[in-house]
Amino acid sequence: MCSMKKNFTIRLTESRLEKLRKLSKEREKSMTAMIEDWIDRLPPPKVDGG
Prior knowledge:
By secondary structure, this protein is mostly helical. Helices cover 46% and strands 0% of the residues. The protein has a domain at 13-37. It has 2 helices and no strands.
């Protein structure tokens, strides 16, 4: 896995941002770590046969 980090901007409603903040604090994880964990649980993309 590439160790180089890139910035990513996302727009969220205030309520979703607050939910993420509260959960990350509750789980003692950064918001970045929470999002990375969610992305890691996504299925791999399908390989295009063409």
